[in-house]
Structures are given as C-alpha cells and as structure tokens.
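Researcher: Please translate sequence to structure tokens.
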Amino acid sequence: ESPDEMLKRIRTCNIGCHLVEASRKKLPDVFEAFLGVIESSETNKGNDARKIKNLLLIEEANDVFGADERRKHTVSRLESVLNKANRLGWCIWLSTQRFSHLGHDPQSASDIFQLLQNKIIHQCDEENVSMIQEHMKEDNSGRLGEKLGSVAALEPGVAFVRATAQVNAKTIYLPPVITKIRLVGKDQNGSK
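Model: Translation complete:
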C-alpha cells in the first residue's frame, strides 16, 4: 500500500494488534500518526480508574525521530504524549541501543527516559549507568544503586527490569530486579 494509505489506516485504526513496517524514510510519519492516535484516545474518561488497553512498541526507536531538522519536533511531541499516554490507556515501549537515542540532545534524552515508566536495561557503559541512576532516584531504599552497579557487567540474556503499577490513580515504583531473559531459538549453551 502507499505511504499515504498506511498513514490513513493508522489514524483510523481500531483497538487490537497491528504490525506496521515502513521504510526508514517513512518511519517518522508513521510514528507521528501513532502519536496522533494516542492523543485522540478516549479509553479512560473522567475520574474512572486508569486502564491500559493499548501498547505501542517501537523497535530501533532512533529511526522514528527522523533526521536532525525533524528530530527536535518529534522528540518534543513524544514528550508531550508520554505525559498523558497512561491516562489515555496507552503503554509505550521504546527499544534502542543507546540512552542518547531517546532525544535530540542529552537533556531531551534524559527527559524522555524519565517519562518512560517501565524499563528493561541490558548491558551499558559506566556513563549510562550513572545517568540511569540519576534519573531513577525515586527508589530511596538503596536497592536501586546496588542493582544498577552491576548493569555494565551483565551477561547476554540478563537484564535490569524496573516496572511500575497503577494503584488508585497513583504510580507505584516496584522493586528493581535483575532477571534472565530466555533467548528464543537458543538452547542453554547459546546454540541455535
């Protein structure tokens, strides 16, 4: 289908599972269309309990922001949507190789990271560990620093996981955990 037809379908999509693939050049338009769908959602109304009914999972998030001239606008729009996505019934997951890919500059990357409620973090360097610790201060029990200190040395298939829960319209940060993630298609020795 043409890119314009795809964008029209996204803007009018119904709740359900949709897999969307687009060329790298068209990804920013597709992402912007999804942000528009999220902003116009009416899953939760008034003071009703918040219900998450929709998931947007973006692989290689760096590609959806577009080139330099468009990146700043798209990151700013994402920040605005993340502020209300949960209230609108949406959970947004961004997958990227580097913390810095979440924004157009270090501050915007930091802001986006902080707005993402649930996090799965694989291996990263010491600089990123420090940045992550800085933005996850809400856990004052000491467990966070202890767990994150070992993130740089995580083996493949092991991740730091931080999740939240909604209780009476309030976000509760669940304890951080280090977990082993089974790699699909591989046996215990890492062979296919």
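Researcher: Any highlights?
Model: The first helix runs from residue 3 to 11.
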